[in-house]
Structures are given as C-alpha cells and as structure tokens.
Amino acid sequence: MAANKKLLVLAGDGIGPEVVGQVRRVIDWLDKRRHVSFDVSEGLCGGAALDAHGTPLKDETLAEALAADAVLFGSVGGPKWDNLPFEKKPERGLLRLRKEMDLFANLRPAMVFEALADASSLKPGLVKGLNIMIVREGTGGIYFGSPRGIETLPDGSRRGINTQVYTTAEIQRVARVAFELAGKRAKRVCSVEKANVMESGQLWREEVQALRDKSFAHIELSHMYADNCAMQLVRQPMQFDVIVTCNLFGDILSDCAAMLTGSLGMLPSASLGPLDAKTGRRHALYEPVHGSAPDIAGQGKANPLAELLSFAMLLRYSFDMGEDADLIENAVQNVLAAGVRTGDILGPGMQPVSTSAMGDAILKQLDRLAA
Ligand code: IPM
Ligand code: MG
C-alpha cells in the first residue's frame, strides 16, 4: 500500500483537539497493526489560528489543505471570539475552507447505533435501525450569496441583508451526488426546499426533478417543504433514505436528524469537492457535526466517537479503505454495546468515562477485531 497519503489535521478550538487526539491514536494503531501510514501534518484553524496569527485561516494553511489528500477537521469557535467582526470569526476559517476547496457536497449521515436507541429523544421504536443520509449543499446559498451585509438607513436604523441564490449547475451537481448515493442505498431521494415561498426553491425543485428524469429514472424522487421535513423528521424519520437540500436548510435539518440518534456527539460528516478527471482525486474534509462545546472543553469529557467516525468516512471516501473503515465502525458498535459511554450518551445506571478512556476502549476493540 502506498505510504504517501497526505493528511492535514486541523483540530481547531474547544473540544476539537481532545477528540482529534483520540483519532491520532487510531492513526498510530493503523500504522503499527495494519501497516497503513499517513503523512500527517497539523495546522491551525478558527480561534486557535486567530490567537496565533490574527486570522482564522492563514493562506499557507489553505494551500496545505488544497494539497492534502484529505483534511481531518475538529471544531471551531467559542465565547472568547463571539464579539469579533464577521470576517474574523473562527467560523470564517471553516467556511473559507469549504468555499476554496469547493466542498459542495456535505454528507451528513444520521444513524442510530443499536445500543443507543434508548438515548434518542424519540421512542426507540421510531428510530431503531434509522439510517438517513442528508446531503447538504456546502458552497452556495445564503451562506455565500450577495448582496450581504448590515447597512445603516437614512433614519439611523439598520438593515441586515443576506441572499439565497442557486444556479442550475450548483443544484444539479449536489443532486447528482444524492442520486448516486441513493443508488447504493434504498434508492429514494427527498429533495427539500421552500418552493412555496422562494423562487430559488422553485428552481431547486425543477432542476432536481429534471436531473432525475434525465439520468436517474431508477431513483424514486419526492419533494418536501423544509418546514414539513423538520416535522416529518421528528414524526416518522424512517420514511427517509437520502435527503438533499440547500446549505441553510441542511444546516438546520442535520442538527435535527442528529438528535434523533441520541447524541450530536456521535455524528460524522464528509464534505466533498468535484472529482478531478485528471487525477481521479477530489478535495475532501471530514468533521464531526458537533461544535466546539466550550462548556466542556479541556475537561476530558468530550465524546470522541463522531471524530473517529469522521475518520472512518475519510478512509472510505478518500482512500477507498472500506475494510479499515469497517473495523473502526465495528469497534464503535462494540464499545457502545459494552456500555462504555461518555457523559452525553449515558444510559441509566452507567458511569461516564473520559475522552481518553473511550479512546482506550476503542483501541482495545480494534486489537480484538484485527486479531
Ligand atoms: C455546521 C456548523 C457551521 C455551519 C458553522 C460552525 C459555520 O453549524 O457545520 O453545521 O453553519 O455550517
Ligand atoms: Mg450546523
């Protein structure tokens, strides 16, 4: 196996460095036990970069991200940087990476681990076996549209502006990813917008339907308004297979779907760019759905499993290492089944373990599974 898998690790702020630390242990394990080596470098992003360099993402770090085969990301942000001007906020570091790496397809799976069905806020019967894939558009929409800004009106009051904007190409390239993923799953895509009140939503609906009719006739496509989708997610989540939606609705609906699984601390994500036909590569960044959780940062309480599962996605999507990804996912299953839990996924009568004790348990399982 080639030894030059270039990995850039951006641990970020809050619990980011703690959970990434556990993944580093698994990377060492892969090196030792599976003879898979990565060429790992580290960089700063978010508040950490701001404190060190006065910017949430240095040009050099961006260049490294563009040159890497994959980026493993932690989390950014925290109260310390809340009152900074917009362009300096830690979150801009992440958004700039998404934009400059052209990470238009943000894959956010929401799956319920057998052992955690009780931790869901819904009745276990409604979520048992749940496995939804949310495909969130990542480089367009209201996050990046212009005009944007805050302006002062002649009477001294102010006006805030953001713009939701999508083109045919932007809609269809993310819809294509959704259809392709659905083809390997239950073959159902639900496209979500607000076509009843937004022209961009109407266009979204028409373009997704046109692509389906032209190239994906074997996939069942339905359309749903975003508000209804939020309701359906908590009413009967098992009706969904793949959901495809814009940047903003995807942000909201993926948090909602995440909670169905019992904990935000369990969910990984992958952000993928377009395939480069020449190199066969695509830019990719993997990050947990949870944020920097400043309230528990630095206390060794954070759940490292979402970061670990993000790393499993990295192995699967960027390096075609499905077998190793399976190993990690199975280790997570087994550790949960054995009742090893961090505080966020604690069941009745269980004692919480620390971030590093969870890492210990994962490594022990990996040893067992690979024996
Ligand atoms: C997410 C986060 C980000 C977003 C923030 C941190 C910029 O909420 O990845 O879901 O809004 O996209
Ligand atoms: Mg979010």
Task: Describe this structure as you would to a colleague.
The chain has helices at residues 16-34, 47-53, 59-67, 90-100, 124-127, 168-183, 199-215, 226-235, 247-260, 305-319, 322-337, 355-370; strands at 5-12, 38-43, 70-75, 105-111, 131-137, 149-152, 158-161, 188-193, 220-225, 242-245, 268-272, 284-288. It has 371 residues and is α/β, with parallel strands linked by helices. The protein has two domains: 1-109 and 269-371, Isopropylmalate Dehydrogenase, CATH 3.40.718.10; 121-261, 3-Layer(aba) Sandwich (Isopropylmalate Dehydrogenase), CATH 3.40.718. Strand 8, helix 7 (199-215) and strand 9 (220-225) form a beta-alpha-beta unit. Helix 1 packs across helix 10, helix 8 packs parallel to helix 9 (247-260) and helix 11 packs across helix 12 (355-370). The longest helix is centred in the N-terminal third of the chain and has 19 residues, at 16-34. The protein is globular. 47% of the residues are buried. The mean pLDDT is 95. Bound molecules: 3-isopropylmalic acid (IPM) and magnesium ion. 3-isopropylmalic acid is lined by residues 77, 91, 94-95, 251. 3-isopropylmalic acid binds next to helix 4.
Strand content: 15-25%
Per CATH, what is the topology of the largest domain?
Isopropylmalate Dehydrogenase
Order of helices and strands: EHEHHEHEHEEEHEHEHEHEEHHH
Structural class: alpha/beta
Per DSSP E runs of 2 or more residues, the count of β-strands stands at: 12
What is the global morphology?
globular
Write out the CATH superfamily name of the largest domain.
Answer: Isopropylmalate Dehydrogenase
**Number of individual domains:** 2
* Integer-rounded radius of gyration: 20 Å
Reading off the top of the CATH hierarchy, the class of the largest domain is best stated as Alpha Beta
**Bound small-molecule species:** 3-isopropylmalic acid, magnesium ion
Output the number of helix runs.
12
Largest sheet: 10 strands, mixed
Strand order across the biggest sheet? 2-1-3-12-11-4-5-10-8-9
Under the CATH scheme, which architecture of the largest domain would be assigned?
3-Layer(aba) Sandwich
Portion of residues in helices? 40-55%
